Amino acid sequence: MHDERFPGLRRRGFLAATTGAAALALVGCGGGTDDKAAGGSGTPKRGGRLRAAFAGGGASETLDPHLANLFADVARAKALFDKLADYGADLSAEPRLAEKWEADKGLDRWQVTLRQATFHDGKPVTAKDVLYSYRRIADPKQAFRAKASLEPIDLDASRATGERSIEFVLKRPTAEFPNILAAFGAYIVPENATEFDKKPIGSGPFRFVSFTPGRSAVFRRYDDHWDGAPLLDEIEFVVANEESARVNALLGGQVEYAHELNPTTARAHEGKGQIEIVRLRNSAMQAFCMKTDRAPFDDKRVREAFFLIADRQELVDGALSGAGEVGNDLFGKGYEYYAADLPQREQDLDRARALLKQAGAEKLKVTLDTSAVAAGFTEAAGIFRDQAAKAGVTIDVKMGSKDSYWSDILDGGTLSCYRSGAMPIEAHISQRLLTDSTTNATKWQHKDFDALYQQAQATRDKTERAAVYERMQRRLYSEGGFLIWGFADWIIGTAKTVKGVETKAPANTLDWARFDKVWLA
Amino acid sequence: MSDVTDSVAEIRDLRVEIDGRAIVDGVRLRVLPGKVTALVGASGSGKTTTGLALLGEYPPGARVTGEVRRTAHGTVGSDGPVGYVPQHPAAVLNPARRVSALLDDIARPQVRHLPRAQRRTTARALVLRALSDAQLPDAEALLRRYPHQLSGGQQQRVVLAQALLLGARVIVADEPTTGQDALTKSRVVEQLKAVAARGIAIVLLSHDLDVVRALADEVLVMRAGRVVESGPVERLWTAPRHEWTRRLLDEQRAVPQGGADVGSGRPVLEVRDLTAVHDRRTAVLHAPRLALHAGECLAVVGRSGSGKTTLARCLAGLHRDHDGEILLDGAPLPRSLRRRGRAQLAAVQYVFQDARAAFDEHRPVLHQVARTAVRLRGAEERAATDEASATLHRLGLPEALAHRRPGELSGGELQRAALARALLAHPRVLICDEVTSGLDTVTRRGILDVLAGLVGEAEDLSLVLITHDLDTARLAHRIAVLDTGELVEQGPAQRVLTEPRHPFTVSLMETTERLEAGTRT
Amino acid sequence: MSGLRSFVARRLLLGALQTVAVVLLVFALTEALPGDAAVALAGDQPDPARIAAIREAMDLDRPAYERLAGWATGLLHGDLGTSLTSGRPVAHYIADGFGPTLLLATLTLALLVPIGFGLGVLAARHEGRLVDRLVSSVTLAVYAVPEFALGVLLVTVLAIKLAWLPPTALGYGTDLLAHPAALVLPVLVLLSRPVCSLSRLVRAGMVDALASPYAAHARRYGVPGARVRYTHALPNALAPAVQQLARTVDWLLCGVIVVEALFVIPGLGTVLLNAVAERDVPVVQGLAVVFGVLTVVLNLGADLVAHRLTPRAGVAA
Amino acid sequence: MTTRRRFALGLGVIVVPLVLALLGPLLTGEPGPRATSFTLGGGHWLGTDFVGRDVWQQVLLGGRTVVVTALAATALAYLVAVPVALMSALTRVRWLEELLMRPLDVLLAVPSLLLILLVASVLAPGAVGLALLVALVNVPDAARIVRAAAGEAAARPAVEALRMQGESRWRIAVGYVGRSALRTLAADAGIRLTGVLYLVSTAAFLGVGVAPDAADWAVMVDRNRTGLFVQPWAVVVPALLIVALTTGTNLLFDAALEKNQTDKRGRRP
């Protein structure tokens, strides 16, 4: 019998981030090893064609930037289109097509001025294009990913106040409004554009040449880009879902850039001189998600016991193959507003046992949902099972379907593996930790916590706002539902000739998968 | 002409040993052009080994001493081709190739000297001539057929044509008439005679003494690998010197005659308006009325394909597709074996032509024979085994052999066991389908004796003998003659044998007599 | 011949029924899968409102039988439907994936037949001797090696270490023929197991055929050895090999996903894999139809060839 | 002589994986602390695997599931295929035969890729699910082969003779036809077991099968292959064991069949 098997389906890189998607690599964090891949050596040179391999979405792929769902989609969208803002190196929103923004007193009306930029067909980018793009995303009949992010904007009330100026009217005060402009998928397309696969027109650094879904996309330098023309003549995105295929293609000189490599691959080739390995630190938060609204995790002593069961270093070494840092049960290590002075939590099995005893949950049995949906999930589940056994907790690891995993664990189960890409801490809270959050996987629903969030959004002063965020994080640290045990590196491989690859930008930020500043030596 | 140049092949002091046991020992043989040399003997007497030695072929692992010389067209030294017509011509015809395939290959070397353009047509002409020499009409169409589309006679003639095409000066014919009816036999005899008339030497290996008498010039009688007597056929027949030769000839001549006509009273088995079909369409047999009385022996005679086996299988319940009625003691028998009760099964028993195929090769014969008593008469395992043992002994099968598996018994021994198996049912009617065809004279004699004994000793046992062989039919009280599915004649054996009425019976009788008389034209 | 024709007609009818059964089975199974296209598309952002909106946009809120009926009606008009995820016609998906698949299958087959038969005949000819033992052991060992392991090994040695061949076909997606070097490794991996099973089958058949009376008869009458082997014995060893070959072709056309993934060849297997992951039911269904028809046709072809080779065996539907 | 040597060779090849598989779990103690994944040394003489466990210990633990699952799947496939094949070979009722064999034809026409993909997603992963799935894929083919062998035996006069003797269908089917098909079955079983082992060992790709971090040779090969360049032993050792197991099985079956055949040939006069 002939056999037809396939390499697991762990091939598609869903953007691990939910909406927002960019994260700031903490400046100064991360070892010096990163620097050598950076654009330091030599003077930038123009010309050449760079081939970049990504995991992709097969024949269903599209160039519609608002439908961007996978890393490959975003990388392509980023080359063809621009957003008003994007996440910079410090994870605050950085102006892109927007030249500046300014809020009124109440933080619910924002004036945005566009810079002078043109689409690939030579037409200028105008306020009308921006409003068209946002309205398209928010279309109630459609289900674009960025719709939820744009929810605070009252698009009917917002209007163009000039050729290049817009007034956004918000439904409530939003101090972090620029984050919305940088939202994942909030790309600006020309007014009335609906068809993107034939000959898409954007304002990005590259212009369209050809596109075969699931295979390749070729773009050429756009000389009139507002941020300066790219150094490369051409960029080709090719799709290879198997990690080994991307590595092999890179080693064999068939591509110059391979996105999303395994830690072991990185270890095998780091410093061997054949290829360069770029580690983007703090790119993916790794966690176990406890449902705080049901037994046994409705008892905060049980949650704390679980915090204490985890040997985080063992999880990082085992599940991430050492490519990452330990977490402290808080999202966004190194990002703006991160509560860095809370003490690092260590494994304490005695205390964990005592807490469980107090809670009357001594011979506790829990089912841990996992799936091959993301790298390290099944490994982490196995390791945590063994760790919990030492504290007298029996964990039954249950493998779920990877295609429906996220939907399955949103409301079902009690304990599950979880991960998230980089996004501002504010976005993490608003999407996952408020009573009306759409993806509240820990079922963290507390009116007082919601109120703190509203307070932060209404606080104009940054320091004061930071203090509110810290209060919220302290609460989560002591009794939250996310057991955040680590932050994984995002690993990219490049040929030795590739220069100018940013090494400090976590996945999903502006400088990640950005090719207009890259050049070939 | 001296003797030496005259012979086309010669064997001197041939000894063939396998595992130290001589299967042919000290055989001398001279084959003269245009003459028929017959090797006669029971199975295992070494005829075939000797015959194949002329072809230069020996059984695997054999040690051969002595000399085999073949002469090509009178020149001493170089080996001339020898043709071979095996007992089952179908076995040497390639089932996956058309008839023409091997013939063309044989002709090819003979046209090699010709210019390329002429080769094909010349070769084809040679092939056609060989076929017509072998008395095969419509050769062109025949060449396009597959072996299984030919009749047995055609297959034999095709094999003969191959030998003729080869230019064989000697043809070894191995049991060419075994299992054939009288008409076919006489045709084969004519054919071989015609071949001999062309100056080709024929080595006939046969246990059919009628055919030997009709064909042979010289006869060698073999027993246990040695030639016990040889000489011209007439001398051998009239004045056999060796005791074994006499015994062979006696077995042939002495035909036990059935008892007086017992057919009276109510028939045991009665057939009314029987029409049997094959494949639900083709009618192959029509028997308006046929009756079998208690203690009577009925022979059903016909050529192969006349429908006699179908008749027997209808009676036994092995051929379901028929109309009309079969009555046992006036009560209709179900058509299918499955529907017949134990008593009905036991009442009508059937003995197969191919005894080897009718036994389970994995279990000892005794055990299989005993099962009949266990299943059909509810006998105890123990008693059944004893009875089986006794019956086998009575039929001439020693105890020691009975404990062996079928693979270790000879065809004749197995046929005795098959009879015993059927008899253990204590049947009212025993149907014997060609039970002696394919057996050598001595063995056949033994089986016929057993049958004759059965008719005599058991009052209520009726016998149906299906046969193409009038010799066997002589055992019977009554004879029914079948031709192409029609019951053409039936009556007391004496009357049918002496004054046949139907023309077909007449011709059948005549050929048989002609063969027996050994008339030579 | 009319018997043969009615046999073919019956088999085709049966094949149509088989295909229908396959499609129904596949539909039932896809319905039984956890999650649907909407959930799959939502990915790690399973906002219930968004899933509901996607579901409505994809018409997934209609009952299953209505969707099946709609799709089947389209099929009767030769329309395989449109993809849920991209809205592009399913026929395009299949046409795009079929090219590389067909190319790989053709190349593999073109090499498989001579190598498989050659090795089989060679081993049979030297039955029991060193050559036979060597061929048999090597084919046995290779047969036991999983494809991905072999693929990884070949890539590591031939492409990465020795740099003789390109490690993948990445970026050649649309035009594989222009880069023949990229096809060497995939074809090698595809060949490995079929060659083993085929040559073992051929060997077994040839051993029997060479020992048969008709082969002896041909030799007896002076037909040269090679001719006996190839024109007289081989046709008899062919029937089981042809059946095996049909199954191999079926496999080559319907799912060589390991090789496709390993070497980045965007064939039908990849299309299927993605469609199942995305719960893109029309695409899965369309592929099921194509695969079902291919299987039926190939089996029918194999049976006809086998019938031609073993004319004794009656035609059995 | 050569047959005996081949037998010995097969035995020699198979004995290492078999002993490891069956006795391995008894030879190993409690799992030690985890180290960093894919490292060599530090008391791990075959290094560590993808989650930092000792590879040697995993090898000792990991054979049983592979062997048991493969054997169970093969047995299960025949458990379904043989009765169906025997019934359809012996029945004279045309529609019953069709009823028995046609559904298998349908199964045969479902591309196994599709079947595995879908069933793998529907079934809860686990050793039982894997055995079931692998058995399901194997049933139609096994049934066809057994059917062909049994059909040949069922057409022999011996079956009619047994019927004439009033033997029960059961005894005819099992005692004779089944017995006659045994040789074909044995030959097929050798090949099928290789195929099943191969399937089981590659099913790890699908995420069917045993838990993704289970101690299981097959899973080890797949999951550790990312570390092939860093720590090859975690892949090479279990892979070699699997190859040895399948090759050994086949050598044994080949030798056994050959012996059987020569026995038979020798016995015939």
From TrEMBL, chain A:
<dbReference type="InterPro" id="IPR039424">
    <property type="entry name" value="SBP_5"/>
</dbReference>
<dbReference type="GO" id="GO:1904680">
    <property type="term" value="F:peptide transmembrane transporter activity"/>
</dbReference>
<dbReference type="GO" id="GO:0015833">
    <property type="term" value="P:peptide transport"/>
</dbReference>
<dbReference type="InterPro" id="IPR030678">
    <property type="entry name" value="Peptide/Ni-bd"/>
</dbReference>
<dbReference type="InterPro" id="IPR006311">
    <property type="entry name" value="TAT_signal"/>
</dbReference>
<dbReference type="GO" id="GO:0043190">
    <property type="term" value="C:ATP-binding cassette (ABC) transporter complex"/>
</dbReference>
<dbReference type="GO" id="GO:0042597">
    <property type="term" value="C:periplasmic space"/>
</dbReference>
<feature type="domain" description="Solute-binding protein family 5">
    <location>
        <begin position="94"/>
        <end position="424"/>
    </location>
</feature>
<protein>
    <submittedName>
        <fullName>ABC transporter substrate-binding protein</fullName>
    </submittedName>
</protein>
<dbReference type="Pfam" id="PF00496">
    <property type="entry name" value="SBP_bac_5"/>
</dbReference>
<dbReference type="InterPro" id="IPR000914">
    <property type="entry name" value="SBP_5_dom"/>
</dbReference>
TrEMBL record, chain B:
<dbReference type="GO" id="GO:0055085">
    <property type="term" value="P:transmembrane transport"/>
</dbReference>
<keyword id="KW-0067">ATP-binding</keyword>
<keyword id="KW-0813">Transport</keyword>
<dbReference type="InterPro" id="IPR003439">
    <property type="entry name" value="ABC_transporter-like_ATP-bd"/>
</dbReference>
<dbReference type="Pfam" id="PF08352">
    <property type="entry name" value="oligo_HPY"/>
</dbReference>
<dbReference type="InterPro" id="IPR017871">
    <property type="entry name" value="ABC_transporter-like_CS"/>
</dbReference>
<dbReference type="InterPro" id="IPR013563">
    <property type="entry name" value="Oligopep_ABC_C"/>
</dbReference>
<dbReference type="GO" id="GO:0016887">
    <property type="term" value="F:ATP hydrolysis activity"/>
</dbReference>
<dbReference type="GO" id="GO:0015833">
    <property type="term" value="P:peptide transport"/>
</dbReference>
<dbReference type="InterPro" id="IPR027417">
    <property type="entry name" value="P-loop_NTPase"/>
</dbReference>
<dbReference type="InterPro" id="IPR050319">
    <property type="entry name" value="ABC_transp_ATP-bind"/>
</dbReference>
<feature type="domain" description="ABC transporter">
    <location>
        <begin position="9"/>
        <end position="249"/>
    </location>
</feature>
UniProtKB/TrEMBL annotation, chain C:
<feature type="transmembrane region" description="Helical">
    <location>
        <begin position="283"/>
        <end position="302"/>
    </location>
</feature>
<feature type="transmembrane region" description="Helical">
    <location>
        <begin position="102"/>
        <end position="122"/>
    </location>
</feature>
<feature type="transmembrane region" description="Helical">
    <location>
        <begin position="251"/>
        <end position="277"/>
    </location>
</feature>
<feature type="transmembrane region" description="Helical">
    <location>
        <begin position="176"/>
        <end position="196"/>
    </location>
</feature>
<dbReference type="GO" id="GO:0055085">
    <property type="term" value="P:transmembrane transport"/>
</dbReference>
<keyword id="KW-1003">Cell membrane</keyword>
<keyword id="KW-0813">Transport</keyword>
<feature type="domain" description="ABC transmembrane type-1">
    <location>
        <begin position="98"/>
        <end position="306"/>
    </location>
</feature>
<keyword id="KW-0812">Transmembrane</keyword>
<protein>
    <submittedName>
        <fullName>ABC transporter permease</fullName>
    </submittedName>
</protein>
<dbReference type="Pfam" id="PF19300">
    <property type="entry name" value="BPD_transp_1_N"/>
</dbReference>
<feature type="transmembrane region" description="Helical">
    <location>
        <begin position="134"/>
        <end position="164"/>
    </location>
</feature>
UniProtKB/TrEMBL annotation, chain D:
<feature type="domain" description="ABC transmembrane type-1">
    <location>
        <begin position="63"/>
        <end position="253"/>
    </location>
</feature>
<keyword id="KW-1133">Transmembrane helix</keyword>
<keyword id="KW-0812">Transmembrane</keyword>
<keyword id="KW-0813">Transport</keyword>
<feature type="transmembrane region" description="Helical">
    <location>
        <begin position="106"/>
        <end position="137"/>
    </location>
</feature>
<protein>
    <submittedName>
        <fullName>ABC transporter permease</fullName>
    </submittedName>
</protein>
<dbReference type="GO" id="GO:0055085">
    <property type="term" value="P:transmembrane transport"/>
</dbReference>
<dbReference type="Pfam" id="PF00528">
    <property type="entry name" value="BPD_transp_1"/>
</dbReference>
<comment type="similarity">
    <text>Belongs to the binding-protein-dependent transport system permease family.</text>
</comment>
<dbReference type="InterPro" id="IPR000515">
    <property type="entry name" value="MetI-like"/>
</dbReference>
<feature type="transmembrane region" description="Helical">
    <location>
        <begin position="233"/>
        <end position="257"/>
    </location>
</feature>
<feature type="transmembrane region" description="Helical">
    <location>
        <begin position="7"/>
        <end position="27"/>
    </location>
</feature>
